[in-house]
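Exercise 7. Given the encoded structure of a 241-residue chain, write a plausible sequence.
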């Protein structure tokens, strides 16, 4: 038995639809290629833009410490080919630019007390341009860095344990508290260490009467620039013999 009708592989009633689809695909491809060629051509031109770049400080004086936090990145207004700018922005492991503290007007290592010094960064235009190779530095932000130096100092101070007692608990009279070591060496700016008489442990909670224990406790953060050694002490509570 023959079928009454069968559908053709293509729709002869609408032959222009397939043709328009092909024309649109060709047009879109031409637009994309033209855009890519325009972009590549544009990258051959010079651009002036602002970029961020990490920095590293060298020749910091051994006997001095900076009280103010130094920027780890600076902004640069640079000029160069579009390819060079694009390469810089896509480089996620940039080599830090070097800032030499020896370029300060005074010599920090010879100072016997704290002081403030300013470093204009306009003297680094050529240095930074050389380090960046394909980009010329036109401006630097900030244009000046401030260094607040203090004398680096180290001394030993006593450690005091801190206890938090729950209601109804206390250290009974025949208990003995031991701290090892009883003092630690701290290093930091003389402005802070000259007023520091002791350092406390992080608090420890006492929840039972007459409890005995031995624990390793960290020390309080006195200042971000003050470093105790060792950073932990052992606090023990036990009964007297």
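Solution.
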């Amino acid at each position: 038995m023959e079928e009454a009708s069968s559908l053709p592989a293509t729709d002869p009633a609408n032959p222009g639809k397939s043709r328009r689809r092909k024309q649109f695909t060709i047009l879109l491809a031409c637009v994309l290629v033209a855009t890519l060629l325009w972009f590549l051509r544009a990258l051959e031109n010079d651009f002036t833009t602002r970029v961020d770049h990490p920095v590293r400080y060298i020749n910091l004086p051994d006997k001095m410490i900076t009280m103010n936090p130094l920027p780890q990145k600076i902004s640069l207004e640079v000029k160069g080919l579009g390819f060079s700018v694009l390469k810089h922005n896509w480089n996620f492991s940039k080599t830090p630019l070097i800032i030499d503290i020896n370029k300060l007007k005074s010599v920090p290592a010879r100072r016997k007390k704290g002081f403030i010094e300013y470093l204009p960064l306009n003297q680094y235009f050529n240095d930074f341009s050389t380090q960046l190779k394909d980009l010329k530095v036109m401006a630097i932000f900030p244009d000046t860095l401030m260094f607040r130096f203090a004398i680096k100092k180290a001394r030993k101070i006593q450690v005091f344990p801190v206890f938090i007692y729950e209601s109804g608990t206390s250290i009974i009279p025949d208990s003995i508290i031991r701290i090892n070591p009883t003092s630690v060496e701290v290093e930091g700016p003389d402005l802070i260490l000259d007023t520091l008489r002791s350092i406390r442990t992080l608090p420890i909670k006492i929840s039972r009467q007459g409890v005995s224990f031995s624990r390793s406790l960290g020390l309080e953060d006195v200042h971000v620039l003050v470093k105790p050694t060792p950073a932990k002490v052992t606090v023990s509570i036990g009964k007297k013999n």
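Remark. The chain has a mean pLDDT of 81. Students should compare their own answers with the one above.
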